[in-house]
Design a protein that fits this description.
This protein is α/β, with parallel strands linked by helices and 330 residues long. The protein has two domains: 196 residues, inorganic pyrophosphatase (n-terminal core); 122 residues, Diaminopimelate Epimerase, Chain A, domain 1 (Roll), CATH 3.10.310. It is 36% helix and 17% strand. It has eleven helices and eleven strands. The strands form two sheets. A six-stranded mixed β-sheet has the order 6-7-8-9-11-10. Strands 2-1-3-4-5 form a five-stranded parallel β-sheet, covered by helices on one side. α2 runs antiparallel to α4. The longest helix has 17 residues. Bound molecules: guanosine-5'-monophosphate and manganese (II) ion. Manganese (II) ion (MN) binds next to loops.
Length: 330
Amino acid sequence: MAIESSEVEKAAALIKDCKEVLVVAHEYPDGDAVGSMMGISLMLEKAGKKVHCSWPEPIESPGRYCFLPGWHMFVMPAEIPDVQLVIAVDCSSIERIKGIKRWLGKDIKIINIDHHPDNTFFGHVNLVNPGASAVAEILYLGAGGLGLDLGEEAALCLYVGILTDTGRFQFSNTSDTTLRVASEMVGMGVDPNLVYQNVYQSDSLQYLRLCGHVLSNAVFEEDLGLIHGSVTREEMKHWNVSMDEMEDLIDYLRALKGHRIAALFKELESGRTRVSLRSKSELDVGKIARLLGGGGHRAAAAYTSEKNRIDEALAELRREIAEVGRNPGG
Ligand code: 5GP
Ligand code: MN
């Protein structure tokens, strides 16, 4: 599904008419959320706008994304000034940015730029293309239509968005367009090795030890085809590892041959449990996550369970997998 040109024109007009803009990514932002947020922020700044960017609390150090340009535009949620225009990136619904409350309900316009199939079209203007591998791909291809100019710095940020959302160009969302866009970005000066060193080769020894622990304790339930692992607050504290550092931990679980679903449970400070899901089968984990209050794509989704014990969250997940497995089309 392509983005309608009338929506692009409306977005371009909103951007043209504003002096100051806030770009927001979703809570616990991943590489596409951070890369797209920074990429469009840099382009807006280049167009002469005053730009702020942020995401909902908790705010952790951007870790592996520290090397991206543009952090001078980042503001803590509590310090967001009044703006006329908000651009949301990689957010399937307004719920994903509910922590950014200050501007809600005021006289502002929202441009919603996303690629999730379950996007709720919550913006005044919606640039949503579920066929795009990443929001970064939409931004790269759409920059001209929005009246924005890509530069090498924005291309670097957008490259990171595509790289991470496609699992380094290996997930099923990797298309010929994705690879062409990435190739053009490299042509513009993006250095794939520099990105690789920062994004995938900067783990701490403590994090590697935590991964070893999680993998040693992972369980494969053959009847459901489910491999699962977990990280408790205590383990995070013991190894001094942040949520943000664990972004790719689930990829180790999904390397298992013959599984259908991989799940990673992370205990949150709030006592609830954050659950990441990945599917290697016909099972739509986006649907499972939506049933449990979250969302995402067919093959990658997540939700926050109200269960504060991992074994209870696991039991809840098992029930939904069995249910959705019985009635995959329903
Ligand atoms: P992750 O497991 O990496 O946190 O998330 C996997 C995918 O699910 C991402 O594409 C992300 O955008 C989406 N996702 C994660 N958490 C939520 C959530 O709470 N609500 C919705 N709607 N989507 C989510
Ligand atoms: Mn994304």
